[in-house]
């Protein structure tokens, strides 16, 4: 007798379906992860763009880019001792040989970008604030 019996064919089909189901779950989960990472990269690029606009002097509070929302908070940076970090021993030369005494402090800027699914990306940086005394 040649060929497969009906029972052997059914067992082979069950084994094949289990292998295909496992493969689908592995690859499907990987694709879902890639989609999430693409969104995080997009949020990071938006935060970087907002940070660059702040560096160029724009006073930003909140806004939206496409389907993403972003907000900016700026607070004085505090040292581990709990006081505002003052940098008083620095001087900047205004002309050759002349130096101005300026008050300097550090501010922390936090940019938060979120998408429709409420996934958040946060970018933090410190900026030197220079004010004439």
Word description of this protein:
The protein is of the alpha+beta class and 133 residues long. Helices cover 38% and strands 36% of the residues. It is built from one helix and five strands, in the order αβββββ. The chain has one helix at residues 6-55, and strands at residues 62-65, 68-76, 91-95, 98-114, 120-132. Strands 1, 2, 3, 4 and 5 form a five-stranded antiparallel beta sheet that branches. The longest helix is centred in the N-terminal third of the chain and has 50 residues, at 6-55.
Q: What is this structure, in a nutshell?
A:
This protein has one helix spanning 6-55, and strands spanning 62-65, 68-76, 91-95, 98-114, 120-132.
* Poorly predicted parts: 89-94
Cα distance, first to last residue?
A: 102 Å
Our estimate of the beta-strand percent is: 35-45%
Instruction: Quickly count the helices.
Output: 1
Name the quaternary structure: single chain
Describe the biggest sheet? Answer: 5 strands, antiparallel
Mean pLDDT: 81
- Rough outline: rod-shaped
The helix/strand order is HEEEEE
